[in-house]
Fold this protein.
Amino acid sequence: MTICGTDLHILKGDVPEVTDGRVLGHEAVGTVEEVGAGVKNVKVGDRVLVSCITSCGSCRFCREGHYGLCVGGGGWILGHLIDGTQAEYVRVPFADTSTYPVPVGVSDEETLMVADILPTGYEVGVLNGRVTPGDVVAVVGAGPIGLSAITGARLYSPSHIVAIDLAASRLEAAKQFGADVIVNPANEKPLEVVQSLTGGLGADVAIEAVGTPAAFELTVSLARPGGHIANIGVHGEPATLHLEELWIKDVTITTGLVDTSSTPTFLKLLAGHQLDAGRFVTHRFPLDDFEQAYDVFARAGETSALKVVLQRA
Amino acid sequence: MTICGTDLHILKGDVPEVTDGRVLGHEAVGTVEEVGAGVKNVKVGDRVLVSCITSCGSCRFCREGHYGLCVGGGGWILGHLIDGTQAEYVRVPFADTSTYPVPVGVSDEETLMVADILPTGYEVGVLNGRVTPGDVVAVVGAGPIGLSAITGARLYSPSHIVAIDLAASRLEAAKQFGADVIVNPANEKPLEVVQSLTGGLGADVAIEAVGTPAAFELTVSLARPGGHIANIGVHGEPATLHLEELWIKDVTITTGLVDTSSTPTFLKLLAGHQLDAGRFVTHRFPLDDFEQAYDVFARAGETSALKVVLQRA
Amino acid sequence: MTICGTDLHILKGDVPEVTDGRVLGHEAVGTVEEVGAGVKNVKVGDRVLVSCITSCGSCRFCREGHYGLCVGGGGWILGHLIDGTQAEYVRVPFADTSTYPVPVGVSDEETLMVADILPTGYEVGVLNGRVTPGDVVAVVGAGPIGLSAITGARLYSPSHIVAIDLAASRLEAAKQFGADVIVNPANEKPLEVVQSLTGGLGADVAIEAVGTPAAFELTVSLARPGGHIANIGVHGEPATLHLEELWIKDVTITTGLVDTSSTPTFLKLLAGHQLDAGRFVTHRFPLDDFEQAYDVFARAGETSALKVVLQRA
Amino acid sequence: MTICGTDLHILKGDVPEVTDGRVLGHEAVGTVEEVGAGVKNVKVGDRVLVSCITSCGSCRFCREGHYGLCVGGGGWILGHLIDGTQAEYVRVPFADTSTYPVPVGVSDEETLMVADILPTGYEVGVLNGRVTPGDVVAVVGAGPIGLSAITGARLYSPSHIVAIDLAASRLEAAKQFGADVIVNPANEKPLEVVQSLTGGLGADVAIEAVGTPAAFELTVSLARPGGHIANIGVHGEPATLHLEELWIKDVTITTGLVDTSSTPTFLKLLAGHQLDAGRFVTHRFPLDDFEQAYDVFARAGETSALKVVLQRA
């Protein structure tokens, strides 16, 4: 299993619906020990991915593939409304539609990256932003989610991916994950860089992967007329939307929680060896050392941690 | 030819790039008196619709059907950057790609409604909002543009169109144009009405046809999780975007100027007698009385004017 | 419940996987008498629509909305691989994802038309054919499925629907269901009629609702360059595809069994009183008279039967 | 400039509308020597790509991006209805919408591959076939067009591309261009290979790049239920369409001539160094030796020629 930036938000108290004593964690790969009476396809002994999103499979949103909006008892519930995956055992409701077999020939660690981070960058950033071949894509924020968006954008062969971040180490990671151009706003104006690549027009797709009003407003400013702005960041306060400029500019702004509807896509890409998901994992700890794991992950600026994996003995 | 709400904005000084002495007007039907050397398909004597958007036909945006974003000398230029249609004669640049033959069996007045108003409601409201059969569609503002959005939404067979306006006369017009439910926010809460029709979820598509921060924020609040918010209104100031609620709600917000790429669609619908465009026309004046025409149009609240047609003698 | 043309095919022996003694029928509205242990959302006493397609809800096709392709034990099984609905009681597997509540204020008979016929014409004809506003749509065959395709096409506001059939009574029905033009190939050439409406180009969308090579080849010939050809008919033999003409013509040909993924759309349209589904029902019999009912339905040419409803006492 | 397989068909007499004495060739990169009065954007001295498709820019098809269907005097006319590019000078009608500037930093040879071959494989094979990440894509025929389809499919990150051809040298080329699996039907059954990769279902997308009934029928048989079949091959005779199997299988079959609407996409990818187009060029000759060039190209089986470039002195 692994730790998500959201877990840190919970510990700070930003997610008040999480009650005291709740077991956190919404990403795991494990072995099925027991199944409930209504489960048809998952069997004891199966090696499965536990997705961050639980899907009831029968509500209108689940039937449309919008599992993140599930109104039948699913959605993001693990490590949030019910006990999560940072434990020896976890109960996963609606197992038939909320777990996936680990593909033959794919490691647990690679599969684990499909529990949340890869689908989030891809669905909420790349698919919502409708990246197409030849596009110039700007990604604001190069933490794990921004790097997932870069990874996902690569699948659609843009002409240039521009990564923007204030931390040199994150920009370096962005390069390794496939960014063609990196920009530190402390040194260069992101808009000027993007304009220089696009004949002055702006990015075809601009992706927000930070979660602050300033980052959102920067992202909006980078999109060209007719462009797409995809918000992935988790926001705690409103932003200003400059409609006096945007009304005539034909932009599309999207928001969203991941649905994990792209899970089968990623499992097929991993099984076909078309994607290197393992490079997200920078640190590994036994489950018993999870306080240390949280500490390393919380100090990502110093430790350069991307994903920290906790392994059961 | 006819008068647009935008012309009133220009007279108030809201569109500073319009210089003194400029002939206004960007909607007309007329007869071709002369053609330039580069014109291939339009001939002297043709009866044509002059679209509010001029298209160069060869820039990247025109080739993608985004004529409103034309960077080759077109876009919205008539009655804005060059002299417009409220005159006896008007020069229309790029005539091959900026005028359309009046269909056989269709009146000039009906065709005139395709110059701006019908494509605007349809493209910027209905197509951007992706209305599909069975949807609940909320339209905020029931002036000419809101009524065009209602007319356009009807083409996709929603289950309910909810029109929201403060003026009783506009709500009455909305009913006649096809709204199933009308709401005056002075008497009822729009969100409650929309929720009562949607099992508490909100509108599938919410369309802004006013152009104020308050109307935009109301429109955003009406959309369901996974819903679409389409802004048509012309805005002069920023709005607040409640990202702290929206980030998890999977909404899509669009803005845009009309492209008039749907002009052929409307001309086919009119030729097939599938649409009653004539009902937009509430007043008619000879061209010589155009001061009176502007006065009636400017006092739409009292005169119930929707579109005011100016006719050459 | 009702009888489908497919039931007649079964009786003739055209569907060999149906074994002797099988109860036929795959369309019904009824009251839930008992539910299995795994059922979560359907309760005893609920009034529900039983869809012709059973969906397991968890296989890859069901999760993509392609219930007709279900590989988890569903698909078209009722009255085919297991006992069907032409009985006092029927067991419906996967009830949570294969039945739908009858909407408040909608009659059983109207709802019954959503079990098969309306979604089939709409999904396999109209959505696969991508009908859009202003299109000219040709429908070859004006039996119940052709009329469903006409009904579905109307939801997207084409400029003209052209219905083609050899039976005058069916053409008359087509007019009442919304065809703008009717053509009897015994008297007129369908291609010439379609060309006269389209400046010589051909139909934007051509829909096959018969199920013979001749009808398919006629349908293909009616589509314009860039047009869509949607096959709904059940075919028993191959057709000739004139690739020597089609390779350069940019056509799209689709086939398919219904998924009934549009069931919620139709239930919303019926609840909003936007659709008259009742007019499909031409005859009603008590369940005890079902031999007579089959006889009337089988002799549709004489009896003008569209849908024949069987009612439990 | 270069030679296309179509030129060989013309020489054999397969394209009867080409009259005696016609200069062949529909692919070129060159310098503008003179421009007509109606040309606005192309200037003497510009280095431009001459596309195989000429676009009038104002007919309905050109305005929809379907330049290949142009009814305003364009379409495929160069080296077909008017003199073509295998000459020292060529007149290109509608230059503003039929030529493209060679991007800075991109070689003439790479740009030349965008005149026909790359857009053809991409638009008619990959976009029509709607390849998406994770797909299994089968390509029947590994000549220059099949290799273009493989190149284009790579842009959408399939999990596996399966190339099928009878010539070992072409299968070897397919590997180098990005096929993951190669199949020679003389040794293995293509359907079995495809099924082994897809849990028995078949390919998500099957692309025909040969132009014979047998190849088309093989391609159709490889697609899974719900899959897409994209025909690129030029056909001279009809094929058999097994509707008795396909009617229930939810397949989509597309045909088409290239539009070259993807030309800007390819020029952006080349400018961003995201694509190696140069590897298509296997032979180069001075223009004076063009008989020898034709000979090498016509004997591609022996010479392993893919694209043969003719250079002006």
Observations:
- The two ends of chain A are 12 Å apart (CA to CA).
